[in-house]
Design brief:
Shape: globular
Distance between the termini: 40 Å
Number of helices: 4
Radius of gyration: 13 Å
Order of helices and strands: HHEEEEHEEH
Number of strands: 6
Structural class: alpha+beta
Strand content: 25-35%
Largest sheet: 6 strands, antiparallel
């Protein structure tokens, strides 16, 4: 199984432990040459070339960018606001992966509140 498919399966499993009213509002979409997970249409996390893409609210992003396994998402050759790449070292365990998914979910929920 490819790394991307294995990570997709891990994310799907992680989403299944959320309460039904949250889990049922996630969808997947092919984006950026990978897969993005959306909550009520807002991107949360995704898989791009072996890395995890995570959206993080601006108030928290600087702290996460200090971690060795996190870097700005520069898909367009310049850092994208509120997006980071997490290298595989940053989501070895299911708990670590769940934490990243929860950060992405927090971002989506924050954006939905501001609409």
């Amino acid at each position: 199984m490819s790394f991307q498919k294995e990570l997709e399966n891990r994310i799907d499993t992680s989403l299944s432990i959320f309460p039904e009213n949250i889990a049922s509002n996630f969808s997947k979409k092919r984006m950026f040459g990978g897969i993005a997970y959306l909550f009520h249409g807002k991107m949360t996390v995704g898989i791009i070339k072996g890395s995890l893409m995570v959206r993080i609210i601006s108030e928290k992003i600087d702290a996460f960018l200090q971690l060795d396994h996190v870097k700005p998402m520069d898909f367009t050759k310049k850092p994208m606001k509120e997006f980071v790449y997490v290298l595989p070292e940053g989501f070895k365990t299911e708990e670590e992966l769940q934490n990243w998914i929860e950060l992405g979910l927090e971002h989506a929920q924050n954006k939905l509140k501001s609409l």
